[in-house]
Amino acid sequence: MVIDALEFARAGQVLEGTVVAREFTRLCQDLPEPQDAGFSWCLAGRQDAVSGLMWLDVRAQGNVRVICQRCMRPFQLALRVDNTLGLVRDTAQLEAMDALETEDDDPGPEYVVADRHLDVPALIEDELILVLPYAPRHDVCPDASDGSPRPGQAKPSPFAVLEQLRKH
Ligand SMILES: [Zn+2]
């Protein structure tokens, strides 16, 4: 599925679809099998009526199977992409936009050179790779018998500790 990014944005086109995670081979290359959960995605183009700037809104959500780096068990991790890419015509314009951005602290939108042969699934996959955590973890691991404290578990109060000491 290949689009001309500028034409797509100018015409205000929308593409959407679903894909099974394992088809994103780059995303899944270091992840455990099976990758049978689905992703839904949407790509929408638009042009700003005043500035003439063109944008691609990229959205995707779904699950990948990952290994928790705390308990080493696999689990389904939800990934969510909601990004807007500004389209520029060439690298000179890209440099001009990047130069504008450094003038204040606001990181601002991300600009990319518009591709006349933009591979849509590859773009979606690139965005998912960016949000995939380097060391995924359960919010709360299913079995905490290894004694490591879980988030939200109250620490013993210093008074309780003193009470324990007094008994000995
Ligand atoms: Zn875990």
Notes on the protein architecture:
The protein is of the alpha+beta class. It has a five-stranded mixed beta sheet. The chain has one domain (2-167). It has helices at residues 5-10, 25-28, 91-101, 120-131, 158-167; strands at residues 2-3, 14-20, 38-47, 54-67, 74-88, 110-113, 118-119. It is extended, with a radius of gyration of 23 Å. It has five helices and seven strands; from the N terminus they run βαβαβββαββαα. The structure holds zinc ion. Zinc ion (ZN) binds next to loops.
Our count of domains comes out at 1
Sequence of secondary-structure elements: EHEHEEEHEEHH
* Percent helix: 25-40%
Identify the overall geometry: extended
Oligomer: single chain
**Tally of contiguous helical segments:** 5
The residue-averaged pLDDT reads 88
The order of strands across the largest sheet is: 2-3-4-5-6
Which ligands accompany this protein? zinc ion
**Biggest sheet statistics:** 5 strands, mixed
Tally of extended strands? 7
Give the termini separation: 73 Å
Task: Bin the strand percentage.
Answer: 25-35%
Output the radius of gyration: 23 Å
Q: Which structural class should the secondary elements be placed in?
A: alpha+beta
Topology:
Layout: E1 2-3, H1 5-10, E2 14-20, H2 25-28, E3 38-47, E4 54-67, E5 74-88, H3 91-101, E6 110-113, E7 118-119, H4 120-131, H5 158-167
Parallel strand pairs: 5-6
Antiparallel strand pairs: 1-7, 2-3, 3-4, 4-5
The chain binds zinc ion.
Question: Which characteristics define this entry?
Answer:
5 helices; binds zinc ion; extended; 7 strands; 26% helix; 5-stranded mixed beta sheet; alpha+beta; two-stranded antiparallel ribbon; 168 residues
